[in-house]
Amino acid sequence: MTTLLITGGAGFIGSNLVRHVIETTSWNVVVLDALTYAGNLRNLEGLETSGRLSFVHGSIADESCVESVLADFNPDAIVNCAAETHVDRSIRSARPFVDTNVAGTTSILEIARRNNVGRFVQVSTDEVYGSLELTDRPFRSNDSLKPSSAYAASKAAADLMVLADVTTHGTNAVITRCSNNYGPYQFPEKLIPLMTLNALEGRPLPVYGNGKNVRDWIHVRDHCRGILAALEKGERGGVYIFGGSEERTNLEVVERIIALTNAPASLMEFVADRPGHDLRYAIDNSEALVSLDWKPHTSFHDGLRETVEWYRTHLAWAQDVRDGSYRSYYEQHYGRTLQ
Ligand SMILES: NC(=O)c1ccc[n+]([C@@H]2O[C@H](COP(=O)([O-])OP(=O)(O)OC[C@H]3O[C@@H](n4cnc5c(N)ncnc54)[C@H](O)[C@@H]3O)[C@@H](O)[C@H]2O)c1
After folding, report:
1. Would you say 191 and 250 are in contact if contact means Cβ atoms under 8 Å apart?
2. What's residue 257's pLDDT?
3. Which domains does the chain have, with CATH numbers?
4. Are 119 and 233 in contact (CB under 8 A)?
5. pTM higher than 0.85 for the full model?
């Protein structure tokens, strides 16, 4: 491997993956990112000094842009992290999710095949499996797809396009499906950075419903290690699932953030539940251990403390990413549910 193209590399997982690749390999990295509200070049700060990072501003759905990136950089592999990712936004408007997650992925996949890119990794989510009951066994990779939200449905559709390409054209692609990530550089609309920053700034902590929804939290570093393992060791057409083996209710997460930030518990407010809110996600990591020799390294206890500390010391970053579009979305969304 000489050159890796990471789409969505200015977002949360993408930028952590870029950092991980620059720090742990000798590869050159090209980032293709549309810089939507969720993409921020500050997430890549400091990496330019490596001399191994190139950035192209453009969309995976723009064929001529993707063609020229492949012609200019000739990457050996692509990791597709570019996506619309927030379930709440997909409830309000599903179309951008179809445009990027389904049409964009289909487009870059086809162009990669035409240009003989050696490997394509589709970064997907465990949300494609839908919701578990509290007593159900954790997800396995070949469980059936039952997405609940437009976000999850668009990711499931993209996964099926990737698998169809493998079957029809023999494309050398793999899919990763991971549980909920946390860590540095996550846009403050997702639970952990939202609650952490609000707690640090003395603002309300809006918890959906009764707070009993369960997520299996994984540190983004562990997810990045999994993506690289799938890239290097995964079988053509393989689906690889990763979780942190750290199931927590949202309430437990918020209470721990309150403790770590010394915020008053009175900041917590229960708000109207998200429509179609999945009750529980959980991952059976035994497959990844056998097939990729992968398991999570960071405990939720240590990872959350480290993450809260990162946000505490990066308030300027948070201020910077909260541009006008984010602020108006936030007010529109929580302004309503908080009433
Ligand atoms: N965050 C999680 O907990 C989680 C868990 C499992 C899987 N995933 C998947 O991981 C991937 C990355 O998620 P994230 O949390 O980093 O998302 P994010 O919203 O933080 O970042 C997405 C990035 O994609 C870019 N982007 C959006 N549309 C684009 C387009 N058309 N062309 C090019 N770039 C575009 C954005 O500018 C942004 O930089 C997604 O595919 C998501 O489904 C996320």
Report:
1. yes
2. 98
3. 3-185+219-245+278-297 (3.40.50.720)
4. no
5. yes
Which of 33, 129, 143, 151 does the annotation list as catalytic?
A: 151
Distance 34 CA to ligand 1 centre (A): 11
The pairing of beta strand 247-249 with beta strand 214-216: antiparallel
Does residue 37 carry a catalytic annotation? Answer: no
- Tell me the Cα Rg of the chain: 19
How far apart (Å, rounded) are the C-alpha atoms in residues 16 and 10? 9
**What is the atom index within ligand 1 of the atom nearest the CA of 126?**
6
Q: What is the mean pLDDT of each run of 10 residues along the chain (339 residues)?
A: 96 98 98 96 93 97 98 98 97 97 98 98 98 98 98 98 98 98 97 98 97 98 98 98 98 98 98 96 98 98 98 94 71 61
Structure tokens at 5: 């193209």
The encoded tokens of residue 48 equal 């330019």
What φ, ψ does residue 175 adopt, rounded to 5°? -125, 135
At residue 326, the pLDDT reads 65
Q: What is the pLDDT of residue 325?
A: 66
Q: What is the pLDDT of residue 113?
A: 97
- Residues 6 or more apart from 15 whose CB is under 8 A from it? 9, 43, 44, 185
DSSP 3-state of 195:
helix
DSSP string for 50-101: GS-EEEEE--TT-HHHHHHHHHHH--SEEEE------HHHHHH--HHHIIII
Catalytic residue check, 143? no
* Half-sphere exposure at residue 260, Cβ-oriented, CA atoms within 13 angstroms: 25
The predicted pLDDT at position 339 comes to: 42
Q: 3-state class of 137 per DSSP?
A: coil
Secondary structure E strands in the chain: 3-7, 28-33, 53-57, 77-80, 119-125, 173-178, 181-182, 205-208, 214-216, 218-219, 239-242, 247-249, 268-271
| C-alpha pair distances (Å), 305 with each of 30, 108, 251, 298 | 32, 38, 16, 11
Please indicate whether residue 334 is annotated as part of the active site: no
Closest to 39 measured CA to CA, from 313, 331, 326:
326
